[in-house]
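Homework help board

Subject: predicted structure for assignment chain

Our instructor gave us this sequence and asked us to write out the predicted structure in C-alpha cell form, then describe one feature. I got the C-alpha cells but I'm not sure how to describe them. Can anyone check?
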Amino acid sequence: MRSVIFVAVLLVMQLFTFGLGRSLQWLFAPVIGARGRRWLMGAAFLVTNSLIAGLLLQLGHAVFRWTALWMVMLLFVMYAALATFLLYLVLRRFMPQKPMSRSLRLFAPLFVLGLFGVALYNAYTPVIRHAEIRINKKLERPLRIGMASDMHLGILFGAKRLDELAAIMNREKVDIILLPGDLMDDNVIAYRAENMRPSLEKLRAPLGVYATLGNHDLFGHEREIYEEVTKAGIRVLANESTVVDNRLLVVGRNDDLDKKRPATAELLKNQNTTLPVLLLDHRPTDIETHAKLPIDVQVSGHVHNGQVAPRQSDCALAQPHFLRLRTNRQRPFLRYFRLRLLGCAAALGFAIGSVDYRREGAALMETEGFAKSVQAESNACTITFVSSYRVIMSRHTRA
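My C-alpha cell output:
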C-alpha cells in the first residue's frame, strides 16, 4: 500500500510540476521565445526530480525541508492558476485583450505571495478555545488542563513564541500542562543558540508540566532533547507513568519511531487506574486499542490539522461523518478517521489546549490535532483545543 501511495505522490508532483512550467511559460511569454519556454519547463522538472532524488538518497533533513517548501509552492501556483483562470472568465467580457493580459500577469504572482502571507499570519496566530469533559471518577475539585503539541522548537519557533505560549497558559490558569511530543525540531542546536531555556521554564502549572517525545524528537538527538527539556523543569515521560498529587495518573509514550516502546497496557500494569488516567501519545494511531483500556483522556498531535489547505477543509468536512462517538463498556470515546497528506509544508505553529474536568460521565478523547468541539451524552463531554491552526499552511511533519 505504501508503494502505491508513493507512486501516486510522484505522479501528482509531476502533474503539478507541469502546471508550474506552463504557468511560468504563460507569465513570461511576452519576454521569452520558444527556447526560453523550454528552459523554464525543464528547470521546473529538474528542481522537482532533484529534490525527490535527494529524499530517496537520504541526503539530509535540509533536502526534506526544501522539498516541503517546493511542494507548497507547486500547490500555491495551482491555486493561483485556477484563480487567474476564473478572473479571466470575468474580465474577458468587458476588458480589451492587451490590458487584460497585463492585469492577469500581475494578479497571478501577487496571488501566490498573498497565499504565503496569509499562511505565515495563520502560522503565528493562536486561536484560543475551551471545553469541559465529565468523567465518572471522583475529583475533589474541577481540574483545568492545558495541552500543547508540536511546538518544534527551533529556528522558526523560538523564545518569543514560547513566551506567548506561557502567557496563554498563565492567563488560562491551568492546573497542569501536557506536551504530547515534537518538542524540538529534530535537534537542540537552535534551542541552545537562542538560549530558549528561560522561556521554556516559564511553562509552569501547580501540578506540573509533563511531556513525551514525538517523531521529531527521535531523529538521533533524543538524549539531548530529553536533557534540555528536563533542565527546564518539565517531566519527560518516556514510556513511563507517574501519579500526580495522588489525584491523577499521567502516562507518556514515545512516538512509534521508538521500536522498543512498550504497549500502553504494559505501562498501565500495577498502576492505580481508579484515578483519572491521562495519556500522552504523539501519534493517535492506537486510539482503537486505547479505547479498551482504562484511559480517560488521550492527548495527541502529529497531524497539524491537515497541514496545507485544502486538508483543513477536508478535516472539517470529514468530522461529521468520520468522527463519531461510540460506547465501550459504558465509556464513550472518540473514534477518528485518519486523513493522510500527499504533501508537507514548511511553516510553523503549535497546538495548545485547555480542558476542564468535572465529576460525572467518562470520556476518552483523541485530539488528532483537529481542535473541534465534540458533544456526547447531552453535553456530558465537550472538548475544544486552543490552537494556532493554519488555514493555508502549517509546520511540516515527516511520517
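Reply (TA_rk): Your C-alpha cells look well-formed. For the description, you could write something like this. Residues 318-399 have pLDDT under 50 and may be disordered. That's the kind of observation they're looking for.
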